[in-house]
Amino acid sequence: MLLTKIKASIIGRPLKTEQLQEEKLPVWKALPILSSDALSSVAYGTEQILGVLVVAGAFALWYSLPISLAIVGLLTLLIISYRLIIDEYPGGGGAYIVSMDNLGWFAGSVAGASLLVDYILTVAVSVTAGTAAITSAFPILHDHRVAIACGFVLLIMVLNLRGLQESGTIFSVPTYLFIISIVMLVIVGSFKILFVDGGGTPPPITSHFPEGLTWFLLLRAFSSGCSALTGIEAISNATPTFRAPERKNAGRTLVILGILLAVLFGGISLLAYLYHLTPVLEETLISQIAEETFGRTAPYFFIQATTALILILAANTSYSGFPLLASIMAKDKMMPRMFTARGDRLNYSNGIIVLSLAAILLIIAFHGHTERLIPLYAIGVFTSFTLAQSGMVQRLLKRKPQGWKGRLAISLTGAIVTFIVLLIFAVTKFTEGAWIIIVILPVFVYMFSRIYKHYNAVADELRIDISAEKPQIKKQMIVLPVGGINQVVRNTVSYARSLDVDVVALYIAFDEEDAKRMKGKWNEWCPDIRLVIMRSRYRSVTRPLLRFIDKLPKYVGDRQVTVLIPQFIPRRWWHSLLHNKTALVIRFILLARKDIIVSTVPFHLKK
Amino acid sequence: MLLTKIKASIIGRPLKTEQLQEEKLPVWKALPILSSDALSSVAYGTEQILGVLVVAGAFALWYSLPISLAIVGLLTLLIISYRLIIDEYPGGGGAYIVSMDNLGWFAGSVAGASLLVDYILTVAVSVTAGTAAITSAFPILHDHRVAIACGFVLLIMVLNLRGLQESGTIFSVPTYLFIISIVMLVIVGSFKILFVDGGGTPPPITSHFPEGLTWFLLLRAFSSGCSALTGIEAISNATPTFRAPERKNAGRTLVILGILLAVLFGGISLLAYLYHLTPVLEETLISQIAEETFGRTAPYFFIQATTALILILAANTSYSGFPLLASIMAKDKMMPRMFTARGDRLNYSNGIIVLSLAAILLIIAFHGHTERLIPLYAIGVFTSFTLAQSGMVQRLLKRKPQGWKGRLAISLTGAIVTFIVLLIFAVTKFTEGAWIIIVILPVFVYMFSRIYKHYNAVADELRIDISAEKPQIKKQMIVLPVGGINQVVRNTVSYARSLDVDVVALYIAFDEEDAKRMKGKWNEWCPDIRLVIMRSRYRSVTRPLLRFIDKLPKYVGDRQVTVLIPQFIPRRWWHSLLHNKTALVIRFILLARKDIIVSTVPFHLKK
Questions:
Q1: Vertex B42: Cα angle to B38 and B47 (nearest 5)
Q2: pLDDT at A302
Q3: Do A254 and A391 lie in a common domain?
Q4: Which of A256, B11, B330, B554 is 20 to 30 A from B375, comparing alpha carbons?
Q5: What is the pLDDT of residue A412?
Q6: B17 near A CB under 8 A
Q7: ATP-binding: present as a keyword of the record (chains A, B) (predicted)?
Q8: Chain centre to alpha carbon of residue A337
């Protein structure tokens, strides 16, 4: 009862199943919940591009503008493609469902694996990046970064266990503040450059291709910048959590996200170019731009604070995506069934908890330096993009709905472009860690296939023909191990006698004298139940009991055996340390090894 | 079965109870097992005295000789007193049994607590000191000292789990090597001083009391030196593990230990004085003496190696003492009953494991620097010395056996002297950590009293009058939660029908349609068992089940309820992750909250 109360105080009172509808999200709440991951990547997208280009010298920096434009173009394509998916799949599900549905089991499990891995990486990476922002401001906290990051994960976990509605309210504030602060930065910065600085003096643009700048470097800069495109999948995956009309609201949210991303990312890239900024080790690009624009005044600190906050909250996107995807995959028998269970607050609590634990393990394993994982997770994202668009192509070709040709063109373009980007990623980032993903994905796919086979095998085994396979009656007998004669044994023997079944009591004696004494007492106390006495030379109770049960069929035929095991139920938890756990051990071994029934007869201690 | 095999390969094949006698120890094996703690303290006893005296200047060092003599005198008194205890208590048990027996429950539990704490401290301190000797030789290992020390504890644990006989053989070699090496050092060193160096030039002896040397300092030096006296208790505690005649063999071992201790300790102190040595930070006193005597040649390294080895093996003394004492106290209902269970190899395996875990926790908590704990554990030793001798005084006064007056004189002197030493300890070492022991002992004593009360209360509750309190017959009924109709349910329903008892099947429906469909199917499949359908609005199965059971008495009177719970038994361990643990949760809650019987009906999956 105490546990129930503690649980309620942390995650809130249980909700009824009918309350499910009320938990659904309006657009203004869905946007911050589902898009903080995508929006927060604005904080490092441009910086990743410049970080690659700067190797080729100052002249190369100009190429950040066309690259950013290409990325915004890719973004537009993705937004349009995903709107088609939302229309076709109002029941939710992005890459996993689309590819499972149209491309088959294998493509589906690859998409599922890459999405699940990505959700975990997103939590670890975002939370540690946010923690790094905080520990940079307060260096004294640096040594505690692992504890702080894990604390944040736990905090987000608890908020999510409380349910979508409330966490939506909590998470919407910082996301909107971040949007406001970056929009403000872009507007004031552009204004300052145009009217105050007189347009600045942009670096000279040469008509020649700068020396040192190779096509490989350009592609690498492009793929680095694509880390700003993670998190789009979340919305189409979560269509059913939207308030009705789900399809329309999800589509609208997707478009709003696309416009915001284009404005914020494009604006940051433009300002960085006009201010002639390059990435430095000690200061983030956003911080440099904000300092150029406002100096170290209140608006600067406001921008820094909202950036740090949204990085941590970006992890929350995964808390909408991972549990939902895991539950869908569990319904498809590819993940353990526990992921389908809705918790007290109607969310998929097991998914929330598993996601948190996996992220915490990653944070601890990388000593809180998960920034290195940033390049990795774009691979998973583009794998799922490609599979989703390919699935749509297949679907449109098969169904040919009204206006299918236009849609096919969009999806085909999407599939081809994202596949090319994926290849660019795999090649240019292979040594940076892309190979890890290439190792992990097959492991996941293999795991899914094993789980799938197991569930199908079990389903086959459990299937019953109602008209033919009726319950059967079998002759029974009870074996009752006794350790002496006392109130516990009386309680158990009373139960056995009440059942009107043959009963044999079994006593394990440690020496001859012990055996004789017990025989005498038993015959006086309960002569109508037969007592078998066995000798144990190894001080074990379990082994003689197993031996006895093995030999039973010889004497009693194929009766079904029930073993009665008395169990102390102490009043205080620490009392249970004072009583041997023999009952539990016997129960476990008997159930695992034999086809017998184990009945636990409790004896509740009063003191 | 695999676990059984792994266990057997680590700790050896199980032994029969009759083999207990064979495991008993001859003197030559008992001496190294039971005295490595006492002998190893020679390695730091003299150093502790000199470390205190050196504060008062070079003239004060002379006082190490009378102090060492006083300690040897105290040792003689203790050896004689403990021989009396062995004679009176051939059944084993030192301070705990003697004080329990003669001074009552409270004194007994104080003695027990101080001994248990001491055994744990001995393991932690000895192993880390030995590890320090190794890491001093190989500084590269210094950062891994915690892992190395824990590894040694685990190694000693496994050797002890294999049983006394074998560990006796393993541990006797280094102990004898240590004795040989120190005796050799004392003989060669004395010879060299007398005949080669011409007697050396001992520091001048002044007839005046040196300035700076206070009585407090002298007492402190004395009590520091008494750390060489720990470990004597072990022999009298372990009397029953000796080969017959136990009493005589134990007494003989005690005397041999006393002579060895006096020779080694006295010899080291004398050599240190004649060589004018004082403790330095980088080198132990033994190392300095050995270097003066042999130079850095083979004998020097032999002495260093055996010293390091015996320090680690000293921990082994506690592995004889702790499990035996814990088992005695458990029989007296002061410790959990599990400590009385003999393992496969006839030793008290739970005591061995708990001791190891406690020592490992201490090592980790102190980051492998448990040297600081050295001053602490002499307090526990002298507390138990005092209680043991006081108990003997009480016993002799009451029984007045032949020749009791002489024995009384010895025990009384022992009690008074050890009590004075205890007071000196408590005062001179209070700020060095003695206060910790003064806090811990009452906690242990309180714990013992709670355990004692609980076991007595349970015994009262279980007591039965064989002639009057017979097994009773009570009306029964079975509640059978079903989750649908399949082979598992068929298996469980078959069992229920075989028992000739009223059966009610219970189905938890999540909506109206679900309820209707189930009702129809059930009536077709098994119309003779009544199916009750309940609605759950909270997606919980447990709560409606509990509610149903609560309401039962209204309809069926005071029948005893048995709940049948089907349980999947998968063929591979990882399959169990794929099935919900609802059965386990329901079983746990029902047993803890209700007075009903829970029968687990296994369904063994074939695939």
A1: 140
A2: 86
A3: yes
A4: B330
A5: 92
A6: yes
A7: no
A8: 14
- Contact of A602 with chain B, judged by CB distance below 8 Å, is answered with yes
Q: What is the CATH number of the domain that holds B329?
A: 1.20.1740.10
In terms of Cβ atoms closer than 10 Å to its own Cβ (0-12, 13-18, 19+), residue A244 is exposed
Domain end, chosen from A424, A455, A486, is at A455
Q: d(Cα A340, Cα B434) in Å, to the nearest integer?
A: 57
Nearest Cα neighbor of A544 from A552, B384, A372, A234 is A552
Shared domain for B298 and B183, answered yes or no, is yes
Backbone angles phi, psi at B222, to 5 degrees: -60, -50
Q: Do A454 and B338 make contact, defined as CB atoms within 8 angstroms?
A: no
CA torsion B63-B66-B69-B70 (nearest 10°) is -100
In angstroms, the CA A516 to CA A512 distance is 6
Q: Do B16 and A537 touch (CB under 8 A)?
A: yes
- Contact with chain B for residue A331, Cβ under 8 A: no
Answer yes or no: do B480 and B434 share one domain.
no
A266/A168 same-domain check? yes
Taking the Cβ of residue B461 and every Cβ of chain A, the question of whether any pair is shorter than 8 Å is answered with: yes
What is the mean predicted confidence (pLDDT) over A317-332? 86
In a domain, A435, yes or no: yes
Does the beta carbon of B452 lie under 8 angstroms from any beta carbon of chain A?
no
Residues A114 and A52 in one domain: yes
Q: Please, which residues 558-577 of chain B have a Cβ atom closer than 8 Å to chain A? A: 560, 562, 567-569, 575, 577
Residue A543 shares a structural domain with residue A513: yes
Tell me how crowded residue A502 is: count the other CB atoms within 10 A of its CB.
15
Q: Do A539 and B494 touch (CB under 8 A)?
A: no
Determine the pLDDT at residue B228: 76
* Amino acid A386: pLDDT: 92
pLDDT score recorded for residue A390: 93
Q: Is residue A6 part of a domain?
A: no
**B605 inside 8 A of chain A by CB:** yes
B589: which residues sit within 8 A by CB, 6+ positions away?
A: B542, B546
Residue ending a domain, among B456, B485, B520, is B456
In whole angstroms, give the CA distance from residue A95 to residue A112.
Answer: 8
Per-window interface: A 105-124 vs B, CB < 8 A? none
Chain B touched by A336 (CB under 8 Å) = yes
Residue type, B582: T
pLDDT reading at A446 higher than 90: yes
A261 within domain boundaries = yes
Tell me if A463 and B592 make a contact (CB, 8 A cut-off). no
**Range of lowest pLDDT (A295-299, A532-536, B496-500):** A295-299
Q: Are the CB atoms for A101 and A391 separated by under 8 Å?
A: yes
Q: Are both B395 and B279 inside the same structural domain?
A: yes
Residue B259 located in a structural domain: yes
Question: Which residue range is the domain that position B384 belongs to?
Answer: 24-456
A543 touches chain B (CB under 8 A): no
Smallest CA-to-CA distance from A454 within B95, B575, B296 is with B575
Identity of residue B566? P
For residues B8 and B519, which has the higher predicted lDDT (pLDDT)? B519
Residues in a beta bridge with B479: B504, B563
The total number of structural domains in chain A stands at: 2
> Which two structure tokens, joined as six digits, stand for B446?
């309180």
Q: What is the pLDDT of residue A353?
A: 92
Give yes or no: residues B499 and B410 share one domain. Answer: no
CB within 8 A of B450, min separation 6: which ones? none
Q: With CB atoms and an 8 Å threshold, state whether B336 touches A578.
A: yes
Question: Which domain CATH number covers A593?
Answer: 3.40.50.620
Tell me what pLDDT residue B372 has: 66
Mean pLDDT of A79-85: 86
Q: Distance between CA atoms of A343 and B498, rounded to whole angstroms? A: 37
Question: What are the CA-CA distances from residue B328 to residues B114, B219, B337 (Å)?
Answer: 15, 36, 10
pLDDT score at A5: 60
